[in-house]
Amino acid sequence: MGRAFLGLGSNLGDKETYLREAVATFTDLYAVSGLYETDPVGGVEQDSYLNIVIELLTERNSRELLEHGQALERKANRERKIRWGPRTLDVDVLWVENDEINDPDLTVPHPRMKERAFVMVPLGELAPEFLRDWEDPNDGEVRRIKDW
Predict the structure, then answer these.
(1) CATH number of the domain enclosing 46
(2) Which domain holds residue 26?
(3) How many domains are there within the chain?
(4) What is the pLDDT of residues 25-34, one digit of tens each?
(5) Is 133 a catalytic residue?
(6) Which of 47, 63, 74, 92 is catalytic?
(7) If we measure between CA atoms, which residue out of 23, 5, 8 comes closest to residue 87?
(8) What is the pLDDT of residues 2-47, one digit of tens each?
(9) CA of residue 127 relative to chain centroid, distance
């Protein structure tokens, strides 16, 4: 079993419900960060996001976690019309212990996670070691709104 971290976000519809339904599908779930409201970064003007990071103790590799995340996005009727646009559910594979990958559709560790406070702040709750060399990019406000 190895550790893995996934970032989940939503800014359309019943955001918290989309996140809760997604989290409930992970039988290998170990921990969930607090729930954060975050400003959108890049892309078109849009509503704020709800973001969490989950920690898994899993036998699955990065590719299997990506496939599970994409299935959850499809179930939430995510539409991919605008890059960095609004979405019902976004699931990103951030880091998987002993599994590095650099394919056109998947790079792990996530290449931009340290550029995103909305990832690093909740990740730091679960794994403070990731914050050792992190500098906040000041890319928007990240507000912890409640425990999961």
Answers:
(1) 3.30.70.560
(2) 2-146
(3) 1
(4) 999 999 999 9
(5) no
(6) 92
(7) 8
(8) 999 999 999 999 999 999 999 999 999 999 999 999 988 776 777 8
(9) 14
Strand partners, 58: 2
Annotation marks residue 92 as catalytic: yes
Determine which one of 87, 112, 116, 133 is catalytic. Answer: 87
Residue 83 neighbours by CB distance under 10 Å = 8
Kindly list the distances between the CA atom of residue 53 and the CA atoms of 6, 85, 111, 117, 124, in Å, as whole numbers in the listed order.
6, 20, 16, 12, 9
DSSP per-residue codes, the chain: -EEEEEEEEE-SSSHHHHHHHHHTT-TTEEEE--EEEE---SSS--PPEEEEEEEEEES--HHHHHHHHHHHHHHTT---SSTT---S-EEEEEEETT--EEETTEEES-TTGGG-HHHHHHHHHH-GGGGTT------S-EEEEE--
* Spatial separation of the C-alpha atoms in residues 137 and 96, rounded to whole Å: 23
Is the pTM of the predicted complex or chain greater than 0.90?
yes
For 114, phi and psi rounded to 5 degrees? -75, -5
Please name every residue paired with 145 in a beta bridge, in sequence order, or none if there are none.
Answer: none
Task: Confirm whether 90 is a catalytic residue.
Answer: yes
Residue among 39, 90, 132, 133 flagged as catalytic: 90
Residue 47: active-site member: no
